[in-house]
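Late entry, written up from scratch paper. The run itself happened at the end of the previous shift, but nothing got recorded in the book at the time, so transcribing now.
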Amino acid sequence: MILSYYPAKSIIHSIDPRAKLIFTFIFVFSVLFESSFLSYGILGIVILLPFFFTKLPPFKLIKGFTPFLVIFTLTVLFHFLLTPGEIIFKFGALTGTLEGVKNGTIFAIRLLLIIMGTMILGLTTSPIDLSESLSGIFNRLKSNTAKEIPMIMILVLRFIPFLIKEGRRIVMAQKARGSQLRLGREFFTILFPVFNSAFKRADQLALALHARAYEPGKIRTPFREYRFRVWDYLLLVYSIIPIIIVVVF
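Output as recorded:
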């Protein structure tokens, strides 16, 4: 999964989560502001370089892109068929254009770069580290609601893998019983058990928070204090490159 943390001892893993979060935001916004193949090629090199310092297995990275292959294909296909321009393909009422191929490819590359940017943060930063680092930022705000944003984020990040695993477990159980899983009525045989398990897990989590005397809005002492070091500052300096690309190109 793209956001599931992969523990390892690497330079990128040891970098302050706040620095990685800043880099991710800058990179993603830079991708959104660009629309040329040249700029996307340079941004691709920019985001590939940190991956060499993650010590992540290549198979893990390739597997993370597998679920998005269908999205990439559909993106190019829809633009190819729906974008007006010079017709290069015609089959009955369907027509494909050269501009559609170009626009679809640009959008697919844009999506690919955004996914790669979020993978750097998701694969090398544990949810706890990310939440604790963000708590130090939001605790400076006066609003109690803003202070709870890191807690909400960590709960969401922890529930996503749980829902996926629970869904797979229920699908395997249904197949073992000889059920033919199709869209329609069979879909609800998976959806309802997943929601039931999610509500039970949420209830257990609420009891655990109550048992630990958790109170919303209260300032909590951090388990680890985050301070910027050399590699953190280097990543922030490296974050300037996407900004330069946006300005120049």
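Strands lie at 87-91, 94-97.
(Scratch paper discarded after transcription.)
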